């Protein structure tokens, strides 16, 4: 039996264009194991969000399939959560009530629901802002509330579309570490769309490098080092260079030659 949680097979997707249909994704194929973190890295418009939406069941493919625990994904399911780029907070609800939103249909008492929501608000460093409304929070804080809401659901599969993009470096690093801890504890499977090469290396077990026209996986890079990783280590620089080379962004200077 396969040990994959997600199986993506020969996935293709097009959208109506101005003259003909625009082929956005072509023949995407890979599997994801339980507890793995996969980053999808690529330039703007290469189809990363479309791929994530297909995995989450928010879009349907033209060809191919996505299976989650052996079942075809045809619509968004209870065991996966998508954290979108835009925060999607309800302006008339406090931070706490926004976090509770995702767990309102679970069989929890009012007290337990509040406790769980506060736990995750605390995790993103906002326990003291629980009663604030979104308009009284900064953009970064709003995104942290959205992250807390997604985590509170304690999903099996967490789909994240540039979740830390709007945060300053310190908050980004802090939440990346929190994600690593949660992921390790709960064995959550994570698929992360990002533009950020360092974020992909820091968090992932494998990085899918995508190229566009039509969107396809150009290279799969296994990040073979223990977590948490040291961003200044030689290993880290090695992977950074490898990925930069995939995007032809690495320095074109010839290597230094040592003559003895
Ligand atoms: N619902 C839609 N209808 C029509 N075209 C779409 C739709 N969604 C995405 N596209 C097109 O598909 C292509 C890929 O978009 P997608 O958002 O998946 O890229 P991306 O790599 O996530 O980009 P970014 O990094 O800028 O968010 C783009 O050309 C976009 O215009």
UniProtKB/TrEMBL annotation:
Any one GO MF term held by the record is: ATP hydrolysis activity
The record's keywords, sorted A to Z, are: ATP-binding, Nucleotide-binding, Transport
User: Which domain of life does the protein's organism represent?
Assistant: Bacteria
Q: Which Pfam families match?
A: ABC_tran
Do you know which Gene3D superfamilies this protein is assigned to?
A: P-loop containing nucleotide triphosphate hydrolases
Please state every residue range assigned to the domain named ABC transporter: 6-237
Q: Which InterPro entries match?
A: AAA+_ATPase (IPR003593), ABC_transporter-like_ATP-bd (IPR003439), ABC_transporter-like_CS (IPR017871), ABC_transporter_ATP-bind (IPR050166), P-loop_NTPase (IPR027417)
Please list every transmembrane segment annotated in the UniProt record, as residue ranges. none
* Record protein name field: ABC transporter ATP-binding protein
């Amino acid at each position: 039996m396969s040990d994959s949680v997600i199986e993506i097979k020969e996935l293709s997707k097009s959208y109506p264009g101005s003259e003909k249909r625009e082929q956005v994704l072509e023949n995407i194929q890979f599997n994801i194991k339980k507890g793995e973190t996969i980053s999808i890295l690529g330039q703007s418009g290469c189809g990363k969000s479309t791929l994530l939406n297909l995995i989450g069941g928010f879009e349907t493919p033209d060809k191919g399939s996505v299976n989650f625990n052996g079942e075809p994904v045809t619509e968004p399911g209870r065991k996966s959560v998508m954290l979108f780029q835009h925060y999607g907070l309800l302006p008339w609800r406090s931070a706490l009530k926004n976090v509770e939103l995702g767990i309102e249909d679970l069989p929890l008492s009012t007290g337990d629901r509040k406790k769980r929501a506060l736990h995750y608000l605390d995790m993103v460093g906002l326990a003291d802002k629980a009663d604030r409304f979104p308009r009284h929070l900064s953009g970064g804080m709003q995104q942290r509330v959205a992250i807390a809401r997604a985590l509170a659901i304690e999903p099996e599969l967490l789909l994240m579309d540039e979740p830390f993009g709007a945060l300053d470096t310190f908050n980004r690093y802090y939440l990346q570490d929190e994600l690593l801890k949660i992921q390790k504890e709960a064995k959550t499977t994570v698929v992360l769309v990002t533009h950020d090469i360092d974020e992909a290396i820091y968090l992932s077990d494998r990085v899918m490098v995508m190229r566009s026209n039509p969107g396809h996986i150009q290279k799969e890079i296994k990040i073979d080092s223990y977590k948490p990783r040291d961003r200044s280590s030689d290993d880290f620089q090695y992977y950074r260079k490898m990925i930069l080379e995939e995007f032809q962004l690495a320095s074109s200077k010839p290597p230094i030659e040592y003559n003895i």
